[in-house]
Amino acid sequence: MKIGIYTIHAAYNFGAMLQAFATQYIIKSFDIEAEIVNDSPHEKLNAYLTNNTSLKAIIKNLYALTNPLIWIKSKRFRDFHKSMSLSKKYKSINDIYKNPPKYDIHLVGSDQVWNLEHKVDKQYYYFLDFVPKGEKCISYASSFGNSNISQSVYPQLQQLLSKFNKLSTRETGGVSLIKQATGQDATLVLDPTLLLTAKQWSKLISQKPIIKGKYILYYGFDKSENCHQIIKNLRSSLQLPIVAISVSTTTPYKFDKFIQAAGPKEFINLFKYASFIITSSFHGVAFSINFQKDFVVMQHGTRMERIESLLDIIGQRKRIISSVQELNELFKNNKNIDYQKCSIAIAEKRNESIKWLKKALLENN
Residue 123: which residues within 8 A CB-CB, separation 6 or more? Predict the structure, then answer.
């Protein structure tokens, strides 16, 4: 049996690349051959160069070209990407539509592959609409990003999902959306990064901490002054330096240390050895939980559904804050997370998710 995995795998983004790795890792642990469909053939030596000709883009390109740390960061992503089993390179997604890959099972997921705002070449590639009728299709932890979509899309969604033999998603909102739009039942499962234990992730990295001593790790996207005040307040309260990591080449605030050249392995290392974590990222929350870290989540816009769904599994939605006042209230009541309870909830959901995936792959229908 051979599985083709369709996912966001080549983006220079920590969560995207790590979830792709984890999906393949788990399937291979079932003694099933699996490869990621290589729909991103144009490997960039420097991921931060752009073809945009605006003045702002030209300045960014000059910065990326002359900063050695950016080249190191790009190489670290490329090297990690090479650790995955990939199919032959397709010149474009159009080539996949013209000549669909041959697999026993086509699996899509995880990450925001079903975000309807992120169409690929105006085609619904991650809905596998190019796969010939009758071939087995499965979704694992596929995310809509935001399940609050117009009902006018429901008929199209029903048609796109009708070919799937088994459906799963990583958000409760996604489960509800699929039921409402198509009448089909979908299963709530964990993101692939949580299918691997902390011990399994640790085997991939150096056991030497990148940062010596205790530190607060910041990994987020918020650029507001409110977020800045929360970061400063945490630094003062915990009396620890702030170390920042980002997929970008810069950060909006001044930190004690910014790890500009971090790749996926450095990302794991920094989460593993952090004393406390501030994040607004779904995968930032996932790795905080996996390494049993105390953390807070910055309220980031209105699209918090993915994070809320994950936090609900461990009963920790209160970790989401939007002000210094809420941070102080959290610290006053319960600064530390009871991982004795949370780890049991995650372990149970991990086992359920792995069993679901294995059964979905091995069933005959």
Answer: 93, 97, 129, 130
